[in-house]
Amino acid sequence: MEKYTLITGATGGLGKAFTNECLKRGDNLVLTGTKEAVLKSIVEDINTNYPQIKVLAKTCDLSSESDRKSFFDFLKENNAQINFLINNAGFIAEGEFLKHPDQEIMKIIRVNCEGTTDFTQKVIKARDENEDLHIITVSSMAGDYPMPYMAIYSATKAMLTTLMVALNYELKDKRVYITTVCPSGIPTTDAMKEAIKSQGAGGRMTMCTPEKVAMLSMKASKKHKVVYVPKVINKFIKGISKLCKETTLARIVGKRWKKSQAKRNFNTEGK
Ligand SMILES: NC(=O)c1ccc[n+]([C@@H]2O[C@H](COP(=O)([O-])OP(=O)(O)OC[C@H]3O[C@@H](n4cnc5c(N)ncnc54)[C@H](OP(=O)(O)O)[C@@H]3O)[C@@H](O)[C@H]2O)c1
After folding, report:
1. Distance between alpha carbon 228 and the CA centroid of its chain, in Å?
2. How far apart are CA 68 and CA 119, in angstroms?
3. CA of 8 relative to ligand 1 center, distance in Å
């Protein structure tokens, strides 16, 4: 069986940065996302510029059980052994709880929690137990505190961080090393760029480029770090937030986020 690195959300901003990091290391790649045309163009690019690297790609809606099953059947058919999983895909959504469009809340939960958990278990079960398996899970600093006006997303990331840290402990003697990455703002999409800008100096100081997040996360994984927070200022904020009561954090974060959304004329329906 051939060894591969599996990257979810490879079609997005941070996913592309992770792909580039893995290409530099010479990893064979399995890429997934939901946008077939984007995946196809990434594969063409890799085949042209890195002919020595094997690359497989298949769309998979992480919220769909049948898509996930077909995806893992595809890995089997292609004799692909995953020795590095990068759980990067995420459904990012903000807005008032009562104003989320129908179905959106369940979709955020299914993609971020159900899909990522299922992928993680399937990859761990199918691993070669005589080899190391590294996993990076992209969570978020949004999971470190209650986040009014981005409550569902933040709660899904809190679940991911807790789950991954616990799994790392359960599996540390079984050659499975899980690094959970908790970035602050990353200017990947136009919406994220606007959200970061609307936070002024605070947004600028805490943000980190996708290239840097990917590069630092790979280094953290190599060192078997359990939780990794890019940037010193974010480590400091995370530390301070552990000392505060949840209600205090919700008040501070809620005020800040409401102000940011007002500056952008953000409303859930019109985003
Ligand atoms: N940007 C930030 O400020 C920030 C901060 C902290 C953490 N993060 C986390 O970083 C990760 C990457 O986000 P990004 O900033 O690169 O955003 P992005 O450019 O929007 O990328 C999101 C990726 O997730 C994939 N995805 C979304 N829904 C999916 C679904 N139903 N099934 C499968 N894949 C799905 C997308 O695939 P398609 O486009 O093909 O659907 C895309 O590749 C996410 O987990 C996010 O929560 C982001």
Report:
1. 13
2. 8
3. 9
- The H-or-E segment that residue 4 falls in is strand 2-7
Question: Ligand 1: does its nearest atom lie under 6 Å from the Cβ of 189?
Answer: yes
Tell me the angle at which helices 151-171 and 116-125 cross, rounded to the nearest 10 degrees: 20
Q: How far apart are CA 222 and CA 84, in angstroms?
A: 11
Tokens of 89: 């895909």
Which atom of ligand 1 is closest in space to residue 15's alpha carbon?
A: 16
Asked if 240 and 46 touch (Cβ cutoff 8 Å), the reply is no
Compute φ and ψ for 77, nearest 5 degrees: -60, -30
Residue 1 neighbours by CB distance under 10 Å: 12
pTM of the model: 0.97
- Which residues are CB-contacts of 189 (< 8 A; sequence separation ≥ 6)? 12, 13, 92
Domains of the chain and any CATH numbers: 2-270 (3.40.50.720)
How are strands ordered across the β-sheet holding 80-87?
A: 55-57, 29-31, 2-7, 80-87, 133-138, 176-181, 227-228
Nearest CA to ligand 1 atom 15: 188
Which residue shows structure tokens 């059980």? 65
Q: What is the mean pLDDT of each run of 10 residues along the chain (271 residues)?
A: 97 98 98 98 98 98 98 98 98 95 95 98 97 98 97 98 98 97 98 95 96 98 98 96 96 95 77 46
The token duo for 95 is 């807005």
The answer to whether 48 and 33 have CB atoms below 8 angstroms apart is: no
- Each residue's pLDDT tens digit, 71-90: 999 999 999 999 999 999 99
pLDDT digits (tens, 9 = 90+) for 251-264: 999 999 999 999 99
Question: In this structure, which residue's CA is closest to atom 5 in ligand 1?
Answer: 185
